[in-house]
Design goal:
Length: about 170
Amino acid sequence: MRFRTEANAYASILSRNVAGIVPQCYGWFELDGLLKRVRAWPSSLLSVLRGQDPSVTKGLVLEDLVGAQCLSVHNVDLGVGEMALRALHKLHSAHILHGNPEKVNVLVILEMKRVVWVRFSHAVCQDSVTRQALLAELAEGWAFIYQRLVSPLSVSCLNVSLISPRYRMDS
């Protein structure tokens, strides 16, 4: 079931042209129970979702993200936080609900200034995903980045800079 959900998410990502915010998917493979046969196909993910054989192990062939690290207090700042939330919003614009917006599901590649979302085993990829569900997930993502990871001093500076000078107490 996990493969089916992840394959469906990547099929949606590919069909809706949401690139760069997830690892590139090059296709999928299957291994039979005795490891006698290995087959791989380029990005024909929709066809694999039909008629799955439960005795066959299947997996996705994804981009190797050299130097990637899970999002943590050691590698996140306001810029990385913003990139992560923009990437999540881009997923949402394609009607893809990640389903598990936690720090282990966000990878940071500092050398490339890139943030990618991974692990789509809880994803929902339907046009019927409600706006409320997407907004709730975005709020959850904001909370874990800005309330648990980014330093409180940085967030307070962010809040002050967003307030109009007319309403600021320090001006």
